[in-house]
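Input record (one chain):
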Amino acid sequence: MNQVTTNKSNTITEIAKSLSQFQSECPVLQKGSQGYGYKYADLPSIVQTINPILKKCGLCFTQLTGGTQDEVSVTTTQLTGGTQDEVSVTTILIHSKSGEYFETTISSSLKANTGKMSAIQATGSIITYLRRYSIASILGIVTDEDIDRHVQKPSINALLDEVRKCKTKEELKSVWDTYEDYHTVKEFVDLVTQKNQSFGNSAK
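The corresponding structure, as predicted from the sequence alone:
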């Protein structure tokens, strides 16, 4: 994620009490969906679990994904060799009686997360991730394995398999650019170099 901003109402006395009650009653969320070498609690299962508890505690939330205020937006910035798209999501937690609220906006770049997806698929994937991440963050809830494709590194074996599957130099470059943290790992660099030579052009 590139940026996180927060805001709150002038008073938070009532929402703080209700949030404390919610946190004491909300269970650890179980992972169920399969990702790239990991499992995680998906958005529908999170919402299904928290909604009854939120109602009991006098809380509700909204995640704005459009409208004139453009709380979820896609912006394009010109970069060397292409463009960089950013997606942002605003989540608002509201105390139903007092109107007190907590608000957070988080954004993420699409540049390193498109992979083989189309722009629309990548945007949808990032928005879903941001919605899931931000609601868990604003409520202070945890899953039994708090990991995600955006924050956890894949295993070296899984990454090497991804390199081997590359059929074009563009796919290889995408893998190389996405996993900058592995640029000092000899196995990764050697395999990328070898694969790159088979395409006759540098992926770096």
